[in-house]
């Protein structure tokens, strides 16, 4: 070493570059005292050459604002191709993510993907109404499919998608990102652990202001519904996930402001009640006409759980109310946050690499499609719907 | 002045004993700088001799734990008599509140109250099923009545109570304490001001663990219902108060754990949905089987309002979520708390002293009785109920 | 019983008027389930005739805004006389608290109190500079004295006050209200329990905007100093109380805005550092020129404690940060609040009734006087002061 | 387009792939209503080929756990080489970040970097005591240097580093990450805007538990001090940044547990007070022996600001207390978080690409080195130090 070692210091390299190298992994001992939370180990990522290659289909806001940036936090997946209908935008995007011009496709090119073994999976980020046909084509081209929620426009479509993927022996996963998000996972685990007794009531809400009438989310032909399938679905799916149980009956009400042309054919506000066999009741509500609020709350026998921003991309706050001796406490768990899109994509890559069934397969999406059909049915008829038990 | 005045100090008395005396009132100038919240003026109370004298009827937990202690924070009212069925307990209580032995009554003594002009009002704190008959007797004895909620066992009883008080020309007020509590008042005012746009969704919850099977609240003959009339009523009344509107339709579900003898004939858990003419939906839930949670939340076009512990005696937390430029803010309003029982009692005393109609008269209680009958009806039949418009 | 008992109900009185009467005390069984915090027992107060009678000396804001109203929450004490220099204000106040005209005194009347055995104690609420002489006179008249903080203008005065009360065999207590406030008590107990390891650092702050130049607090002859003795004292006393230890050295800086005549002779802002024998460092600061902030924070080996509004009359928030497994938690303890003035007054009444030494006797005030003298000394000289060990 | 367009939908591609493409940038119109916070635009990143290439020097925890992962969130920078003393660890790390074997260097290789124009900058992440010599070598090799804090072991070293970089005409930036973190930036801006009046007091704290005695941070020869230069520096630098002012005098105390061999020669706990010409006082404290706490608080004339976790990698919470009419409010600003390492690295890349001086150049580090020397001097002598005004 050319520079002077400071007096009293021996073995400088190992002091400079700490860590244990073992079986191709680098790890660190815990330098903190016991009272502090131990530092997490550095992320162990696959080298780029060994990661699962994804094409991303659809270059709207979600893709550019969240999904493509999320790939940089992935450990098992990488973006290798784009599928879009607007060439200039595609080229610009590809350039900035280092994707070559030979990996840019249009919606008509799906069968050409079959010739690209480096593209193992496709993340479908297009309007709901197009999912069914696109997934069928991708399955036919031999690609594993990660499909944005809601899965489809109808349960019939959802069933066709599942069948097509089964036939083609490719994996199908629905992008229910909250299943892969650490705070939502902690809530499900805590509820189902029984530590706070049995759950009795759930409240879930998902609202935001949908301003612009031109977007496809306000076109029922493309969106397949209004607030319910787009954002209310988080309340429905989130409640089922947290309880680990399927509802036995439901009731819904739908409200569209009478003179607003945007909501002539779809629901601005949708409120519903789910009753579960164990005796839990869930009250859910969603709206395109209220300031952003995306919270999940559970009342249990021995405490309450509030997950603020449960369905948001960031900003989760988990608080637990409980008795502690002769006073009440509210305990906030400060979990390390994670990019839920990256965690979701990595989960699918992990399933592909290890031939596993994803946590949220097509069947999970199908269940929600059936429930949303029943919810619209209840809202239309004003009647409570009793659901068939799945056999 | 016999003691030495410190050097440089003149007019010691006025420096020692600051304040302005004017028209029989003492007030203080604001000593704080503008950036701090000005100190409130000292409470201006009527001298004891001029306050409205109350008898308290029923010496259960609520009376001993909250109502009698609250009188010490009243400015216009004082406790002067007790009505109870257990002599030793009555004497002990009277002794500790400085109430003389000649002011102790039993439930059979109501007509004797007529001879006591110093007892101007009676606060009825007995099981719900007894309210109707007791209020009729008290009205007949010429006493103004402040009656605990729920008003009665049925809307028919409520109507009889209103009629009896009208006939006797005495005032009838239902003890909806939240109407007199500063945080609930601030929420109603903020919602109805339009500052955050129109309300779209309301969530209200009221749960607690009812442990002991022996108490009258678990005896339907005395309580007239389960969780709904006792604690769910706060969700119903609170939603109506905040919106300033009456529901047009409702739906409800009731759950009683199948093998729990306490809930053989009454609702442990009750969930309901209210639809309002303006297009607001409210989701409410109550349970005797979940850890204490008493919160009210409103989603509006331009923000959300959360009042934690809305229906509790203390511990209110008011937070308002809104956009501020390019970020979200959550603003906590730290209002000075007040003893809501004292404020409620003083309101009734004020109405008596000035011959005014209380903010929550018998008619307010009657409205809730009718709605609770419709809610039980919906829960029994599984049907949505459309309510008649009040003419 | 004249009214109809509802069908199925027997023994109505005991159901109506629940509770156990035993040894002259009323108590209630816990009706809540185990998961909820048990309801506290109703307050057990002495009847008015048996309570300790207090005269209140000085009718400024603190007396009218906090102390006199607090007596209504006392269980062992009652206000029976007033001592003031402004007759009309005194009469008005007495009238509204039901105090007779024969119980109104001026500052010259102190020796006349000797003839009133119903006045057992006097609460001195006058400017600091008058405390010494007044307490000496009250002791000579045979009255127990509860004296507002700061105890005096100097440690010499404080010593005279202690000696006078010892000689007259009356009790002397300094009104350090935070010692009697439940949240502050919980913090001291938690720190000293060792549950979170040893404390390492304390931060205490007490600021408010002093607007009006005319008040006695801005007259050094009456106040004996600026922000330090008035509000900074809470940081000093609070740190000592929480640690249960006396500082061994200190350093201070004082700042007065150069062109503000209000602060020509006294400290607007005062910052100080205390070093304790156990190795804890405390950083404290106070100012008359900053928006209200009155917080106490302790860093310990295994967690941190933050008591927001520690030194306020209300609004205490206690949060504890700690490791929980692999994440951090922040736990808010929601203790039942109590009126700290009432708790403080009742403590003194309890000591009088049972001949006990108060928790904050004159000696506690004397210690702070000596420390404040050392702090001013350090601020003047710019030197660290080493304190003598008390033997 | 081969698939069926849903009925009623025209111009599917532009609906599928929304956004405006202009001047090589993609942007989106705001789809949200005015009441919601507008969605931010997708990140606009340089294509990998045009980014500034960085070598990272030192492969300890900070590099593997934070800095290398942060590069994936950079828009202007990319990691292209590693410099380390342990070959196997270096190869493993390089493999997982897609860095070729020809880009791995040892500490002896620095002059070889001169032949690599693709390596434009080096991020130095080695023990403090090595910075000076390493930065001089890197400057000599013509590389821009981003150097971790603390800059050096002494102000003399810091001056040498600045001179070496000036002579070599390379840029030198000290990695004060908080300057590039959005919450810290918002606090500085708010304080200096005057919106809350003038600042009066600052409290800054930075504690954590240093468990393991073997690490270089506990070797004074390598660390150049104890808690102060490592973590207390954030309090010092953060206070200066927030106030935009240099202290005029200071006082410090240092505590090392008497029997702990880890702290025989260095400070476990360090507490200091800074006085600024404008009249602000800052109280700062740091410790290696207390549970993690990294908060910054400012008291101003018209409000207070608390930034919880100010100096942490994540978890920032910004709350502002203020008067609002007749009550206090506490307003939490929920800013979008950003990876502060990525923002810091991108800032340096931006300066290199545009030939600008970084916000935290070597001179900023030098100022802190001088102040830390004065702080240690004060702690050693127990005297207040008056600092020379910079001319």
UniProtKB/TrEMBL annotation, chains A, B, C, D:
Residues 185-305 form the GFO/IDH/MocA-like oxidoreductase domain. It comes from the Bacteria. It holds the Pfam family GFO_IDH_MocA. Signal peptide: none annotated. InterPro entries: Gfo/Idh/MocA-like_OxRdtase_N, Gfo/Idh/MocA_domain, GFO_IDH_MocA-like_dom, Glc-Fru_OxRdtase_bac, NAD(P)-bd_dom_sf. The keyword Oxidoreductase applies. The keyword Transmembrane helix does not apply. Residues 53-176 form the Gfo/Idh/MocA-like oxidoreductase N-terminal domain. Keywords: Oxidoreductase. Belongs to the Gfo/Idh/MocA family. This is Oxidoreductase domain-containing protein. The lineage of its organism: Bacteria, Pseudomonadati, Pseudomonadota, Alphaproteobacteria, Acetobacterales.
